[in-house]
Design goal:
By secondary structure, the chain is of the alpha/beta class. The chain has two domains: about 35 residues; about 160 residues, Endonuclease, Chain A (2-Layer Sandwich). It contains four helices and seven strands, in the order αβαβαβαββββ. It has a seven-stranded mixed sheet with strand order 1-7-6-5-2-3-4, with helices on one face. It starts with a helix and ends in a 7-residue tail after the last strand. One of its GO terms (biological process) is midbody abscission. This is MIT domain-containing protein 1. InterPro entries: MIT_dom_sf, MIT_domain_contain_protein1, MITD1_C, MITD1_C_sf. It comes from Pelecanus crispus.
Length: about 200
């Protein structure tokens, strides 16, 4: 708004300096990522909100991502104590479909529900599998009785470990309460999220 040419010149110069500095910082972080030296940790406090799946994953879902691996022992039916785990996995798949990535294959490794819950677990996963087919996405399902770790990997090298897996959201207070549909507004359980790049990890 100033009409003083000297001030205009000064402000333009300062803005240019800040923009250059911001670009340099961005390039430095990107280089750290590429060199595999990048490790980001997010601490989600009990009852915290604003941690929907997009918030956690979108940064790493680049356009080249076409394959995703989900290792989580508790993708089960509503009889599981964490009763929304199947819906959480469905919500995660919906996020992948929305892009900007072009996911074609999702690999799920989980444990089998016990007793009467098993058939319902299988039925729910098959329904998700069929629905994903309509969007050109293949869901490969495998079961393991010894799986304990929770890990999500993308074929661009990024790996995300969440202490509670995909099931870090608290049960909504009711079907018509805020946060039931929008996960960004859903209170969370306390958990830790660690983000690595495969270049940063050593295989033993």
């Amino acid at each position: 708004a100033t009409k003083d040419e000297a001030k205009k010149h000064h402000y333009r110069q300062k803005i240019s300096e800040y923009m250059t500095r911001a670009e340099n910082i961005k390039k430095h972080i990107e280089k750290e990522k590429q060199d595999g030296k990048y490790h980001k940790q997010i601490r989600i406090e009990d009852n915290a909100t604003g941690f929907g799946y997009e918030k956690l994953f979108q940064e790493y879902l680049t356009e080249i991502v076409s394959e995703v691996w989900v290792d989580d022992p508790y993708i089960r039916h509503v009889h599981q104590a964490s009763r929304y785990s199947l819906y959480n996995f469905l919500r995660f798949c919906e996020m992948l479909i929305k892009g900007p990535c072009k996911v074609k294959t999702i690999h799920l490794l989980t444990s089998c529900d016990e007793g009467s819950g098993r058939s319902q677990q299988i039925s729910g996963l098959e329904e998700i599998q069929q629905s994903l087919k309509n969007y050109g996405v293949t869901l490969n399902i495998a079961f393991s009785s010894s799986i304990h770790d929770r890990e999500i990997r993308f074929n661009n090298g990024w790996m995300i470990k969440i202490g509670r897996g995909l099931d870090y959201f608290k049960k909504p207070q009711g079907r018509f309460s805020i946060g039931y549909c929008d996960f960004d507004l859903r209170p969370c359980h306390e958990t830790t999220v660690d983000v690595f790049h495969t270049k940063h990890t050593k295989k033993m």
